[in-house]
């Protein structure tokens, strides 16, 4: 009797898996899932009980659970595919969220932090999509608190549009020199007021900038410029928000010292100046042990002129705000740490929210108050 030989699935499965893995290895493609969970309990005094209102509400203290103390809570996907001859395809999709309630951050965008695709080579990286501005990227390494979202005046430094939609961006590294340049066709498509990409007006809602750093041994220097063109009013050219900055840093063993200056000016569609300020910062970080480090930083904003964003009234010269920040972090492992973060501001709320008008970081002084103190005890996990 003739017998039929059946293929053993135990033989097929390993062979098939080997073929699939061989194909993946040849393509050298990888996708990485990563993220941050950051939660804290915070105390703040002298807050307006009515939020961002003019006039301010009665002052009161607040105790709350918040997401994003030393780092914004997020999850993301990062992909790389080797195309051969030193060329790679890259992409990043990064979603911000508030871990205390599970909601999407960044105006409810699914990938509001970053969403871009591009090509990387020995000559640099060219990417397209929603990305950080050039000045934000380069100066991240020249801020003592590394853009801590809770108590560092990041928006006062770089402006509200430090992430921009519709952006073409070039990043290159040449020995000790790193250079970044970008152009946005429309900085914020989530808002009709700043969408850009207007037929017949190429500049309306657009933005551009560039920055470079030089780091050799313990010394570093950074220079940058950023410009945003708000949408044009009918019959007029768009206004412009300009920022130029320079910073230095010094690193020695377990200590880093950083200082910088940022010039800023905003003009409306009639070329009238609505904001003019000089922003300064200095700070340092000391690593006591591999697990324990502390950061101390000081920020000062010399506000020459500001217009109230709520009613357009000219405020003239105002008292210049300043802020001190102190952070201590203790690492339980490479991925998990505790932290204590504190800040005190004078002549403004924390992060200078009320001095230059409507920065939107959530701290607003109560009526009759000119200082604010905040402290947060938190926990951060990286994955």
UniProtKB/TrEMBL annotation:
It holds the Pfam family Porin_4. InterPro entries: Gram-neg_bact_OMP, Gram_neg_porin_domain, Porin_dom_sf. The lineage of its organism: Bacteria, Pseudomonadati, Pseudomonadota, Betaproteobacteria, Burkholderiales. It is a multi-pass membrane protein. This is Porin. Residues 16-347 form the Porin domain. One of its GO terms (biological process) is monoatomic ion transport. Homotrimer. One of its GO terms (cellular component) is cell outer membrane. Residues 1-27 form the signal peptide. One of its GO terms (molecular function) is porin activity. CDD domains: gram_neg_porins (cd00342). Coiled coil: none annotated. It is found in: Cell outer membrane. Keywords: Cell outer membrane, Ion transport, Membrane, Porin, Signal, Transmembrane, Transmembrane beta strand, Transport. Its main location: membrane.
């Amino acid at each position: 009797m003739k017998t039929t030989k059946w293929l053993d699935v135990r033989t097929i499965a390993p062979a098939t898996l080997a073929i699939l893995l061989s194909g993946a290895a040849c393509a050298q493609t990888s996708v990485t899932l990563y993220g941050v969970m950051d939660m804290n309990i915070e105390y703040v005094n002298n807050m307006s009980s009515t939020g961002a209102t003019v006039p301010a509400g009665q002052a009161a203290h607040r105790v709350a659970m918040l997401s994003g103390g030393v780092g914004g809570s997020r999850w993301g996907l990062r992909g790389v595919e080797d195309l051969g001859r030193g060329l790679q395809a890259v992409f990043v999709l990064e979603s911000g969220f508030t871990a205390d309630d599970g909601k999407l951050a960044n105006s409810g965008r699914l990938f509001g932090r970053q969403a871009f695709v591009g090509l990387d080579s020995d000559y640099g990286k060219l990417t397209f999509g929603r990305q950080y501005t050039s000045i934000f990227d380069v100066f991240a390494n020249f801020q003592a608190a590394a853009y801590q979202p809770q108590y560092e005046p990041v928006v006062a430094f770089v402006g509200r549009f430090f992430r921009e939609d519709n952006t073409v961006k070039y990043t290159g590294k040449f020995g000790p020199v790193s250079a970044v340049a970008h152009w946005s066709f429309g900085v914020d498509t989530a808002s009709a007021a700043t969408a850009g990409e207007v037929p017949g007006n190429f500049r309306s809602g657009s933005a551009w900038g560039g920055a470079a750093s030089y780091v050799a041994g313990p010394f570093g220097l950074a220079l940058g410029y950023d410009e945003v063109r708000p949408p044009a009013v009918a019959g007029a050219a768009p206004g412009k928000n300009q920022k130029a900055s320079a910073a230095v840093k010094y690193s020695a063993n377990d200590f880093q010292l950083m200082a910088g200056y940022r010039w800023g000016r905003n003009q409306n569609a009639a070329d009238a100046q609505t904001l003019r300020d000089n922003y300064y910062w200095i700070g340092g970080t000391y690593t006591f042990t591999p697990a324990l480090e502390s950061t101390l930083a000081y920020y000062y904003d010399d506000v020459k002129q500001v217009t109230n964003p709520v009613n357009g009234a000219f405020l003239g010269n105002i008292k210049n705000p300043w802020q001190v920040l102190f952070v201590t972090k203790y690492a339980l492992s490479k991925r998990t740490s505790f932290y204590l973060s504190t800040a005190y501001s004078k002549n403004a709320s924390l992060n200078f929210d009320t001095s230059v008008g409507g920065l939107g970081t959530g701290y607003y002084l109560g009526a009759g108050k000119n200082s604010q103190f905040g402290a947060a005890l938190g926990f951060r996990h990286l994955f």
